[in-house]
Specification:
Strand order of the largest sheet: 6-5-4-7-10-15-16
Distance between the termini: 39 Å
CATH architecture of the largest domain: 3-Layer(aba) Sandwich
Mean pLDDT: 95
Structural class: alpha/beta
Number of helices: 12
Number of strands: 16
Strand content: 15-25%
Shape: globular
Helix content: 40-55%
CATH superfamily of the largest domain: Translation initiation factor eif-2b, domain 2
CATH topology of the largest domain: Rossmann fold
Amino acid sequence: MSESAVLSQSTIETIEWTSEGVVMIDQTRLPRETVFVTCRRYEEVAEAIRTMVIRGAPALGVAAAMGVALGALHSNDLETDMPVICDALAKTRPTAMNLFWAIERMKQVYGSIRHLPLSQIRERLVREAQAIRDEDIAINKAMGRNGAPLVPDGKAVLTHCNAGALATAGFGTALGVIRAAVRMGKNIDVFADETRPFLQGARLTAWELQRDGIPTTLITDNMAGHFLKSGRIGCVVVGADRIAANGDVANKIGTYGIAVLAKENGVPFYVAAPISTLDLTLASGDEIPIEERGAEEVTHVQGVAVAPEGISVANPAFDVTPNRYVSAIITEKGVARAPYEESLRRLCEAARSKMR
């Protein structure tokens, strides 16, 4: 497939700042229909995050930043309201590091300009939120360039959940690596896990890759081991919601099992995530908070009951893959390999030095 075709097809407007408010594609309605919602107040952004209208760690960071900017537009007393706005957005989902990173970045900007007139503060916060969105797209493309050489030519790539344009401001993390590999001319196809219980792979990843014309085979989650053993799959590429200092990776539930199966079958397991997903304050993945979601996501599929009424349900949204199963972590600043305590720290230092 030509580079221009991939570029044009992979342009998905996940989230955008407009004069009407924050416009985002409703990911709960895909792939049956493409519907955009407009959030005019920060409370609506928080609800969209909570209900997974928008999802994916980098996209949540962008949404949170825009939520803060919306809150500023409607506040006449930011000294009082800013902590309330930020706290409401921070309480939406506990695992995705990018959400907290973006809120902290907006708070730091506010702290540096709080002495200015309110109109100027509002304008500056809106510009910062828009900058976070634009930077995310550029970061994803840089990750793609860094990760594409790791993808074997003539093989399939297995991915889990959705780490594509829909999970970011555009292009994607794991799917960005796949898209970049296609742009390099590599002959690859994709196996996409359906990703129970919310079906991000079946509903979102398959939809994105089909739009791109990248050959994709949808499989159920419990088929991954079969295909990893078959020799068809050259590597696994997934995204991440939070990465600890030692390289332990929190990602969509089911990722851990795939990583174990990949190692058992000698298949490299790669994680693609921006520097903003790293949480070097946590020594290991044991400290990463894991979100528990509602029982109805397990007992129902698209509103249809598939389990007996009253059954007890556990629904952790994420699991943690220990670093020993991670072949490399692909970021916009380069590719980190074990020992991750050293390589991730160096990449973070490189990112900070560029900002200075």
